Amino acid sequence: MKEITATVNAVESINPNVYQITLKVDDLTFEAGQYLIVALPTGEQVPYSIGSAPHELPYLTLYVLVSDSASLASKVVEHIKSNDSITIKAPGGDCHIANGVLDSNPENILLIAGGTGFAQIKSLYSHLVEQNFTGNVSFYWGLRTPEDVFAQEWLEEAHKYTPFTLDVIVNEKGDEWHGRSGWLYEAVLADHPDLSKSVAFISGSVGMVYGTLDQLELKGLSKENCFSDVFAYAPHPDKPVL
């Protein structure tokens, strides 16, 4: 990873807890699915998936969830808001589209995101669209409630690209929600009951990633065909003994 000065282009609140941040950079290349690190003046270094695809350079998009005003994420947003430029380190991560998995011609590519894990999966999806990829790609995005959905404009555009599928699934649907609801893995398995020839990229919290992987493995997905940044820093929690 190299240290880069990024110009702050925009900081937008796009739902009660999520900020969309646009940066402009020079002299950076990255693979769809990689991340960057925001370097704070305190010395803290905070990683965020790059939510834009490589063809959108020199602009980078981040999605930052701020659930608590005292959180590290809140410090990141305030730092970016108060400066015309910031220091980042990039690119990082090996959970990306150029890792060789496409060479195996998988039956399906499953792109699975929970919450702001959306950023990494959006980058992968957008890159495959840009490359006119001809295989089967299914994007599943899980959120707690309909109010948690963001990036509506992007979703509307993405739905127009009919060769790929894109589904938003909420746990608590409410009266106004007419889309899919339930657990994220249930939607994946309803559409793909046999995953033996599929590959998956999963982005989200540690619990979400491993919980989803456990369910997909039961239907034939091999660990070798599943990719997540979580694997690099968090071991698989022990499964309960039944």
UniProtKB/TrEMBL annotation:
Record's keyword terms, sorted: Luminescence, Oxidoreductase
Coiled-coil zones: none
One GO MF term attached to the UniProt entry: oxidoreductase activity
Record GO biological process: bioluminescence
Provenance organism: Marinomonas polaris DSM 16579
Designated name of the protein: CDP-4-dehydro-6-deoxyglucose reductase
The keyword tRNA processing appears for this protein: no
Source species, domain of life: Bacteria
Domain FAD-binding FR-type stretches: 1-98
Short name of any one Pfam family annotated for the protein: NAD_binding_1
Protein biosynthesis as UniProt keyword: no
